[in-house]
Amino acid sequence: MAYSTDLFHLINAMTKSEKRYFKLFSSFQSGSKVYISLFNAISRQEHYDEEKLKKKLKISAFPTVKTYLYNLILRSLRSQQLNQNISLQLKDMLKDVEILYQKGLYQQCTRLLARARKIAKQYEKHIHLLELCQYEHLLTSLNLAPFHSKKLIEKGYSEVTQALAAYDQLSDYRNKVLVMTDYIHSEGRRNKNKADKKKLENALQPIIDGEPPVFLSYKAGILYYNIRELYESNELNYQKAYESSKKYIKHMESNPLLLNQEINNYLVGLNNQMNRQQTLGLFKELKANLEKLKTMELPSETEKIRAIEYTLPKEVAYYVNMGKYQEGLERIPSIEKQLKLYEDKMGKPFLLSLYANIVELYIVSDNVRKALHWNNKILNSEEIETYIDYYTNSRLCEIIIHYELDNLEKVDSLLKSYQLLLAKNKGEYQYEKCMLRFLKNLINQDDEKELLKSFKSMKEELLELSKDPFEKGAFYFFDLIPWLDKKIKKHSRK
């Protein structure tokens, strides 16, 4: 008999803080608390087993209790969200202000306005602040509340002016972020049209040049450094982009209160910073950020999934680049468990990045059959050809895997199709062309000295290419140098 697992998945999606809040919330409910026993029992299950629950708890009307618990959890989550979401709080307070005003309870209305305005200022909710100020002006104009003092009126107008200026700055920065991201995604990694690039630079002035302005809000600083980091990354100035990412994080951590309201932007900032650390080879710094993300208590399942997306690919990349292959292999089973839970909720690029890094880990660990398994997961992904970098990289890995398996006829066939692929896509990276030439020569060699010479020569060529900022992009998807090191070491012993 099939049982509904909705309740099980809902409970498993709750954070520790949400579970604590639910138990507090449920303590105020009247009647029997048998559902608490059910909640605790399900929380302890790794896989849902309803028959076991029925035998253990002996609950009559089990389906009814399940439904009640499910709905009660949703009520609890709504209540907690209301308490945590400042915008929702302010919307409810505005509704209450309207009710009190309509009832003619002007003193109560005034006190509530003062409380709401304090919250709106504290959390930089400019739109809500403007709405609250409108009520203050209405009460003042009608002499219905003690706002007739000249200083109070002037203060009110000053706050409106400040809120409008802050909102204008935010709107300007939001538009610039859209311009930047549209430019990046419309062109990808391809050479940009000079006219389009000039248009972009004009649109982003004065952000991309000069010192930061006075930020009229916390959010403005986030957007400003985000634009800088995006632009500098696109210009292949990875060091500058890294400096901007550090300023981004520093700015966000400067206000813990508002940081909690912008946790998703904080996660994005950490991810961008880790991307720059990986590109620049700053793996100790990368490791520190990975540990930070792992220990963060996040407010919702959505943020938890984002953190998993950001950490898993870079964690595997860390093991590969630091030569800690065995540690990486020992970590794979727990990664597979996480994938079973979250794979269908993770973004495609992050999944592909994770698979690609696992492929590289297995290749450098001489377990090419498992490398083939994970590489096939990439090649068999839906619409994989639209993710050209991952697709091209995966086709290259396929050649290397079959070379290691000594399937030389297969390698020859794959090389021909890989060459056609590069021609079709006008293979932009010299990295790809070098690998094609290298592998073509490799399959025709069987002399150990010549093989060693080829591996060393290829490594030197790739090291030289890695100095080119543009070519660094190719190394992000698959760095062949660790594999070449393994081959050089192996053939040096013969």
Question: Your description of this structure?
Answer:
The protein is mainly α and 494 residues long. Among the domains are: 6-84, no CATH class; 90-148, no CATH class; 384-494, no CATH class. Helices cover 77% and strands 0% of the residues. The protein contains 25 helices and no strands. The protein has helices at 6-12, 16-27, 34-43, 50-57, 62-84, 86-102, 106-122, 126-141, 150-187, 194-204, 218-234, 238-253, 256-259, 263-280, 283-295, 301-321, 325-342, 348-364, 368-379, 388-404, 408-424, 430-442, 448-465, 472-477, 481-492.
Portion in helices: over 70%
The radius of gyration is 29 Å
Number of strands: 0
Mean pLDDT: 86
What characteristic shape results from the CA principal axes?
flat
Low-confidence stretches: none
Q: What are the SSEs and their pairings?
A:
Blueprint: H1 6-12, H2 16-27, H3 34-43, H4 50-57, H5 62-84, H6 86-102, H7 106-122, H8 126-141, H9 150-187, H10 194-204, H11 218-234, H12 238-253, H13 256-259, H14 263-280, H15 283-295, H16 301-321, H17 325-342, H18 348-364, H19 368-379, H20 388-404, H21 408-424, H22 430-442, H23 448-465, H24 472-477, H25 481-492
Helix pairs in contact: 1-5, 2-5, 3-5, 6-7, 6-8, 7-8, 8-9, 9-10, 9-11, 11-12, 11-14, 12-14, 14-15, 14-16, 15-16, 16-17, 16-18, 17-18, 18-19, 18-20, 19-20, 20-21, 21-22, 22-23, 23-25
